[in-house]
Amino acid sequence: MAATATSTRSAWRPGRLLRRLPWWLLTLILIGGAFLWVYPFLWMISASLKGQLEIFGSGLSLLPESWEWENYARAWNEASFSTYTWNTIIVTVASVVLVVVRCAMSGYVIGRYQFLGKKVVVAVLVATFFVPTGYTIIPVVEISQNLGLLNSLSGMVLALSGGGHVALILLYAGYFRGIPRELEESAVLDGAGFFGVFFRIMLPLSGPITATATLMTFLGTWNNFFIPLVFSLSRPDLRTLSVGMKAFVGENSTDWGGMAAAATISLIPLVILFIVLQGQFVKGFAGAIKQ
C-alpha cells in the first residue's frame, strides 16, 4: 500500500504532469501566463495614450480609440519630467558607481583575506540588513544638514549610496572566494599592490557580479522615493522621477493619462538596462551561489 501511495503521489507531481502535455498545449499555457504577467504594464502604456474619460470607460481594452500623444508632451514639459529625468540619471549613475566600487572592494577583502574580527564584521553587516530605511533617515538627514549637503544632488547621492548593501557585498565575497589565488600571487610577483591587484585582476574577472550589482543598484536608486522626497522638499527642481509623479495628483483630481505617460517614460530605461544585462545578471547569481 505504501509503495502504491508513493507511486500515485509521484505521478501527480507538477513536473511530471507538465512533461506529459503536448508541446503546443504547454506553449499556449506559457503564453497565457506571460500575457497575464505583462498585462498591467501593457495597460499602463495603453492608458498613457488615452483621454481621461476613456481610461475609465474602456475597461480592460488595450487599444485606444483616439491616440492622445499630448499626454507625453504634458508629462515631459508641463510636469517638468525633462528636469526630473536628468536629475534621476545623475543620481542613479553616481550612486551605481559608488556602490559597485565600495561593495566590490568590501567583498574582495571579506572573501579573500583573513583578519582579526572578520566574523564580527560579517555579523554586523548581516544585522544591518534587517534595519528598515525609515529608522536611519533621521540621522542621515541630520548628518547631511551639518555637512551642508541637504537639498542637493550630491547629498542625495551620498544618502542613497551610503547604505549597507549587504547582499551585494556578500555576493562579491562569495564570487571572489572561488577565484584561484595563483592569479593574485602572479600579480604580486609582478609588483602589483592591493589596488593594482583589485582593479587590474579581480574587478575585471567579476563581470557577472558587477552586472548584477549594477542592475540591482540601478533599480533600487531609480525607483527610490523616500530619500529623494526628503532631500527635495524645499527644492522642487531636485525631484527625481519617482517623486515627480506627485505632480499629477491634485487636491481634487488626478491626471491619470499624464501619470501613465510619466510612468512609461520612467520605466523605459529600466527595461532597456535589464534586456542588456539579463544574461550577466543570471550568471552573476549562479556564480555566487556555486561558490
Descriptive notes:
- With 291 residues, this protein is mainly alpha-helical.
- It contains 16 helices and no strands.
- The protein has helices at 2-11, 14-20, 23-47, 52-57, 70-78, 81-112, 118-128, 137-146, 153-161, 166-177, 181-189, 194-205, 207-222, 226-231, 241-244, 256-290.
- It is globular and about 70 Å long.
- The relative contact order is 0.13.
- The model is unreliable at 1-8 (pLDDT under 50).
Estimated share of beta-strand residues: under 5%
Principal-axes shape call: globular
Query: How can the largest sheet be summarized?
Result: none
In angstroms, what is the radius of gyration? 25 Å
* Secondary-structure element string: HHHHHHHHHHHHHHHH
The name CATH uses for the topology of the largest domain is MetI-like fold
Instruction: Supply the CATH class of the largest domain.
Output: Mainly Alpha
Number of domains: 2
Number of helices: 16
- Mean pLDDT comes to 81
- Count the strands? 0
Structural class based on helices, strands and sheet pairing: mainly alpha
Low-confidence stretches: 1-8
Kindly state the percentage of residues in helix: over 70%
- Give the name of the CATH superfamily of the largest domain: MetI-like
- Between the first and last Cα atoms, what is the distance in angstroms? 43 Å
Observed structural traits:
291 residues, mainly alpha, MetI-like fold, 2 domains, disordered N terminus
Secondary structure layout:
Blueprint: H1 2-11, H2 14-20, H3 23-47, H4 52-57, H5 70-78, H6 81-112, H7 118-128, H8 137-146, H9 153-161, H10 166-177, H11 181-189, H12 194-205, H13 207-222, H14 226-231, H15 241-244, H16 256-290
